[in-house]
From TrEMBL:
GO terms for biological process: cysteine biosynthetic process from serine. Residues 1-15 form the signal peptide. Pathway: Amino-acid biosynthesis; L-cysteine biosynthesis; L-cysteine from L-serine: step 1/2. It holds the Pfam family Hexapep_2. This is serine O-acetyltransferase. It comes from Chrysophaeum taylorii. InterPro entries: Hexapep, Hexapep_transf_CS, LbH_SAT, Ser_AcTrfase_N, Ser_AcTrfase_N_sf, Serine_acetyltransferase, Trimer_LpxA-like_sf. The lineage of its organism: Eukaryota, Sar, Stramenopiles, Ochrophyta, Pelagophyceae. Belongs to the transferase hexapeptide repeat family. GO terms for molecular function: serine O-acetyltransferase activity. Residues 60-163 form the Serine acetyltransferase N-terminal domain. PROSITE patterns: HEXAPEP_TRANSFERASES. Keywords: Acyltransferase, Amino-acid biosynthesis, Signal, Transferase.
Length: 324
């Protein structure tokens, strides 16, 4: 307890300063916190918007405006489309408005003040390349996606993902107060959408959380870029470890519905974890794992190898009509 207090007072005065954070780590924190701090910095560096990302986001925003105008006269949807899309200035503004309006509207539990929450969302997301990449991931990889508007307004996986990006931003500030805001956001998202992702977990860009119900991702988990996570997926601990105890998922990994991945293991780039699989061992790059740690060797069946390869190809962004 005392070390936690010491850590928090250290962290609040020295938040964001690289060397100070490192020192705080060495003196007071467990290895996992050091890991979380250093990789959070890496993710931040990797996810900072480039000129190309900003151009893509501007293009997404233009498409959103077009689509919104085509339905603004709907008696049922007009008002929502007006306040959430047409009155916004850019993609960050749209996403922040949507997240804040949903998280603030608590009927039970804690109330988060809507306007302050929206400002915090804008600050957290405005230089982040990942929300735009997430929109494109949905458009290219979810066959049910018919519009950009649907992605940002009606996909709760998108909402839960962006809310976690905001909570992660608060968590990374390190002070007790910021970390509790992060935990409050986690709590609201979990209440609203049954998606429980710790704010210290690192989620790469281009994430598609399809259906997004019953997803649990633990504190020291990491998910690389361009991954797809179906409903009821758990990235958890084994219950036997403390510290750095959650899975590290590579890039372009697909986690099928109900997949349970446990422990500080690595799932390699391009791997597929089958529905309902239970995985407690490393999965090599490009492999498919099903059942209990059962690797399907793509060399055994050329037909199967072909299927896996085709799936990897369809994760790319050039899917009909949706590349912008
Ligand atoms: C993720 O997808 C984007 C868009 O296709 C691509 O530019 C980027 O290189 C991909 N990153 C990884 C690590 O797969």
């Amino acid at each position: 307890m005392r070390s936690l207090l010491l850590m928090s007072s250290f962290a609040s005065t020295l938040a964001f300063k690289h060397h100070a954070a490192e020192r705080t780590c060495r003196v007071f924190a467990t290895r996992s916190r050091c890991h979380a701090l250093s990789t959070a910095r890496q993710i931040k560096a990797l996810s900072t918007s480039t000129v190309e990302d900003k151009a893509r986001d501007a293009q997404i925003f233009r498409r959103l405006l077009e689509e919104a105008r085509s339905i603004e006269h709907s008696a049922l949807l007009g008002p929502a489309v007006q306040s959430q899309i047409l009155e916004s200035n850019d993609l960050t503004d749209v996403v922040s408005e949507i997240i804040a309006s949903r998280l603030a509207r608590a009927t039970t539990g804690i109330m988060l003040p809507r306007d302050k929450l929206k400002e915090a969302c804008v600050r957290a997301l405005k230089e982040d390349a990942r929300p735009g990449a997430d929109v494109m991931a949905i458009m290219s990889r979810d066959p049910a996606a018919i519009s950009y508007l649907q992605c940002v307004m009606f996909f709760k996986g998108f909402h839960a993902t962006q809310a976690q990006r905001v909570s992660a931003n608060f968590w990374a500030k390190g002070s007790m107060s910021a970390r509790h805001v992060a935990l409050a956001i986690q709590n609201r998202v979990s209440e609203l959408w049954a998606v429980d992702i710790h704010p210290a977990a690192e989620l790469g860009g281009g994430l598609l959380m399809d259906h997004a119900t019953g997803i649990v991702i633990g504190e020291t988990a990491r998910v690389g870029a361009n991954c797809t996570i179906l409903h009821s997926v758990t990235l958890g601990g084994t219950g036997k470890e403390r510290g750095d105890r959650h899975p590290k998922i590579g890039d372009r990994v697909v986690l099928g519905a109900g997949a349970t991945v446990l422990g500080n293991i690595h799932v390699g780039d391009g791997a597929t974890v089958g529905s309902q699989a239970v995985v407690t061992k490393d999965v090599p790059e490009g492999m498919t794992v099903v059942g209990l740690n059962k690797l399907l060797d793509p060399n055994i069946s050329p037909a199967r190898q072909d299927t896996v390869k085709k799936r990897i190809e369809t994760w790319q962004y050039e899917v009909n009509g949706y590349s912008i």
